[in-house]
Amino acid sequence: MRFPFLFLALLAAGCQTRPAAETAATPPPLARTAPDAPLRETRWVLRQLAGQPITVPADTREPYLTLRADGTAEGNGSCNRFRGSFFSENPSELKFSPLMSTRMACPALETENAFTRALGQSNTYRISGDTLRVLDATGAAVARLEAVYLR
């Protein structure tokens, strides 16, 4: 008759739970989130225009944008450098003056022109981690850029 007693003892042991105090003292795992990249003095590399991923021909550069602390906007559309001014006087505001550019012919000229047009349509922005979304006056994303840190 030992078998039923042993069975009941094992069954009771399997049903025990941790005391409430021990469960409450165990902290939940921490969610790690990266801080948002700064708008200024960050190299923002273009990844999408109007929701479409961009492709860069092998003999051209990655399009990028850098917004300087003095209000200067500069970058490269893929072949041509551009420069102008930007305004961000209110939270989330981002507007550009007309951008001046060199005008060399290149295989990525269509992407380059679309990039500078998107910056010209800019009204606001949103940064989440290493992602900058440039939004037009309706709130639609005209460009998505990614912070790239140089080593």
Automatic annotation (TrEMBL):
One Pfam family here: META
InterPro entries recorded: DUF306_Meta_HslJ, HslJ-like_sf, Hsp_HslJ-like
Keyword field: Signal, Stress response
Domain DUF306: 37-145
Signal sequence coordinates: 1-20
Superkingdom classification of source: Bacteria
Name of the protein this chain belongs to: Heat shock protein HslJ
Originating species: Hymenobacter artigasi
